[in-house]
């Protein structure tokens, strides 16, 4: 039995939150907290929250309500709220749910060890600053043994684009890029711990600007890290797809043929209302150039339907764009008004119309995704194996195109990269045979 205190972290939202949760666990690890898989029996529960869509805060309050029983059994239990809801709601969280001991925003979690001392002394702790210091410089090196061969690495945070629907510029703040030498050091630390694939993260990752380094330069430097086999990056904005980044997709052998490039809408009128600063045509030409550099690249996207002012013809334009691009993967959402954003002031499309459009769009996107998966059958892919599958002796991993692939491979280890022939396409994965 260790004397460590038990920390349960529940993560909501995007991959950047997944990364932040890891770093928070590491920061608290240095103060004697050990991460556990369930809230029961924990000494500290930390919710790392997302504010991107509707009812985010309400969901957190109802989740907190569920911990009443655990708190009754263990009055010493400490409860914290981190992430973007913490940033947006601040003190209000403790007012509405007095059980909460700690509230910390996404830019101050390096101060968690200090905050925990306060909390352990029975005080409340709140920090939603946008501090001058760089939180990453105040976090411990990546100390935990890694179980997963694929890791996230945040290189850029925040957003200066101010899309009319989006809370990120308010919750995560202005665009900040981490210095390239720090990123390379962290990447080497991860590789020493067995990581084979690094996914570079940023709300606007391709706007990365680290002391004059572009994202493409960073990717080329990572390409030289021995032991690192695969590089990915997400999420990008069409207006920051620079020539060097497009070229890297054709020339950099560790950069995987997958690009998440949200367009949100195919209507120029809606794009303008969203303040996206580009047209549908611009996006389509961009995809053509990317495909010219890397013909087999899988394109992924995000869409919003029912944005204020979206008419049938605008939605038709979105459907046309989707047909033209042919997505291998995509996420689509019904517009939800976020308090404080410009679009929240405008008149809405009715829920019925938005629902119908969402259904239609998702049907098309699913059809495209399935067709692309079907086309993989018979092809050979390289799979980075990550974990055991549901069946005995089965292992699951990811192809270069980020398809989940399962094979029978009792001798495979997490971290192995092996050539596989795809033999079948299932709903959300491919079945394969080791070659
Ligand atoms: N309503 C619906 N979807 C949204 N997204 C961001 N803000 C909103 C909103 N207010 C979607 C966008 C973005 C993805 C992360 O979430 O498609 O690319
Ligand atoms: Fe959610 Fe966006 Fe914050 Fe990520 S950055 S947690 S998606 S609001």
From TrEMBL:
Reaction(s) this enzyme catalyzes, per UniProt: N(6)-dimethylallyladenosine(37) in tRNA + (sulfur carrier)-SH + AH2 + 2 S-adenosyl-L-methionine = 2-methylsulfanyl-N(6)-dimethylallyladenosine(37) in tRNA + (sulfur carrier)-H + 5'-deoxyadenosine + L-methionine + A + S-adenosyl-L-homocysteine + 2 H(+); N(6)-dimethylallyladenosine(37) in tRNA + (sulfur carrier)-SH + AH2 + S-adenosyl-L-methionine = 2-thio-N(6)-dimethylallyladenosine(37) in tRNA + (sulfur carrier)-H + 5'-deoxyadenosine + L-methionine + A + H(+); 2-thio-N(6)-dimethylallyladenosine(37) in tRNA + S-adenosyl-L-methionine = 2-methylsulfanyl-N(6)-dimethylallyladenosine(37) in tRNA + S-adenosyl-L-homocysteine + H(+)
Stored Pfam families: Radical_SAM, TRAM, UPF0004
Main subcellular location of this protein, as a coarse class: cytoplasm
Radical SAM core domain location: 145-368
Keyword Transcription regulation attached: no
Family, similarity comment: Belongs to the methylthiotransferase family. MiaB subfamily.
GO MF term set: 4 iron, 4 sulfur cluster binding; metal ion binding; tRNA-2-methylthio-N(6)-dimethylallyladenosine(37) synthase activity
Record organism: Profundibacter amoris
Residue ranges crossing the lipid bilayer per the database entry: none
Domain called TRAM: residue spans: 374-435
Classification via InterPro entries: Elp3/MiaA/NifB-like_rSAM, Methylthiotransferase, Methylthiotransferase_CS, Methylthiotransferase_N, Methylthiotransferase_N_sf, MiaB_methiolase, rSAM, rSAM_horseshoe
Domain called MTTase N-terminal: residue spans: 5-121
Listed name of the protein: tRNA-2-methylthio-N(6)-dimethylallyladenosine synthase
Compartment list: Cytoplasm
Annotated function: Catalyzes the methylthiolation of N6-(dimethylallyl)adenosine (i(6)A), leading to the formation of 2-methylthio-N6-(dimethylallyl)adenosine (ms(2)i(6)A) at position 37 in tRNAs that read codons beginning with uridine.
UniProt keyword list: 4Fe-4S, Cytoplasm, Iron, Iron-sulfur, Metal-binding, S-adenosyl-L-methionine, Transferase, tRNA processing
PROSITE patterns hit by this protein: MTTASE_N (PS51449), MTTASE_RADICAL (PS01278), RADICAL_SAM (PS51918), TRAM (PS50926)
GO cellular component: cytosol
Description of how the protein assembles with itself and partners: Monomer.
Name of the encoding gene: miaB
Binding site for [4Fe-4S] cluster 2: 159, 163, 166
Enzyme class of the recorded protein, top EC level: transferase
Residues that coordinate or bind [4Fe-4S] cluster 1: 14, 50, 84
Cofactor remark: Binds 2 [4Fe-4S] clusters. One cluster is coordinated with 3 cysteines and an exchangeable S-adenosyl-L-methionine.
E.C. number(s) listed in UniProt: 2.8.4.3
Co-factor requirement: [4Fe-4S] cluster
Coiled-coil ranges per UniProt: none
């Amino acid at each position: 039995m260790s004397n460590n205190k038990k920390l349960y972290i529940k993560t909501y939202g995007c991959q950047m939150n997944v990364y932040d949760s890891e770093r928070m666990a590491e920061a608290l690890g240095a103060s004697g907290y050990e991460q556990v898989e369930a809230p029961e029996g924990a000494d500290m529960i930390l919710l790392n929250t997302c504010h991107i869509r509707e009812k985010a805060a309400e969901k957190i309050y109802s989740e907190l309500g569920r911990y009443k029983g655990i708190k009754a059994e263990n009055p010493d239990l400490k409860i914290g709220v981190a992430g973007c809801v913490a940033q947006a709601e601040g003190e209000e969280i403790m007012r509405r749910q007095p059980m909460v001991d700690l509230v910390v925003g996404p830019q101050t979690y390096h101060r968690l060890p200090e905050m925990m001392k306060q909390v352990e002394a029975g005080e409340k702790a709140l920090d939603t600053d946008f501090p001058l210091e760089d939180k990453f410089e105040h976090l411990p090196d990546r100390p935990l043994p890694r179980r997963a061969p694929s890791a996230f690495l945040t290189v850029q945070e925040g957003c200066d684009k101010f899309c009319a629907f989006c809370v990120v510029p308010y919750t995560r703040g202005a665009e900040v890029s981490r210095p390239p030498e720090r990123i390379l050091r962290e990447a080497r630390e991860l590789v020493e711990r067995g990581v084979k694939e690094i996914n570079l993260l940023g709300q606007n990752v391709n706007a990365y600007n680290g002391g004059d380094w572009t994202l493409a330069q960073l990717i080329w430097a990572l390409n030289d890290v021995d032991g690192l086999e695969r590089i990915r990056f997400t999420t990008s904005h069409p207006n920051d797809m620079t020539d060097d980044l497009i070229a890297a997709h054709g020339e950099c052998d560790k950069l995987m043929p997958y690009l998440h490039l949200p367009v949100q809408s195919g209507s120029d009128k809606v794009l303008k209302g969203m303040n996206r600063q580009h047209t549908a045509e611009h996006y389509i030409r961009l995809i053509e150039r990317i495909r010219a550099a890397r013909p087999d690249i899988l394109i992924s996207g995000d869409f919003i339907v029912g944005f204020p002012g979206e008419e049938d013809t605008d939605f038709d334009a979105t459907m046309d764009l989707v047909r033209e691009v042919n997505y291998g993967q995509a996420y689509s959402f019904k517009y939800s008004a976020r308090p404080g954003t410009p679009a929240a002031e405008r008149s809405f499309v009715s829920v019925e119309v938005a629902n119908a459009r969402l259904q239609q769009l998702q049907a098309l996107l699913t059809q495209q995704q399935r067709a692309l998966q079907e086309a993989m059958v018979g092809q050979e892919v390289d799979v980075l194996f990550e974990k055991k599958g549901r069946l005995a002796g089965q292992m699951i991993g990811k192809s270069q195109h980020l398809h989940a692939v399962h094979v029978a491979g009792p001798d495979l280890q997490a971290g192995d990269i092996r050539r596989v022939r795809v033999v079948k396409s299932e709903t959300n994965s491919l079945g394969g045979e080791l070659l």
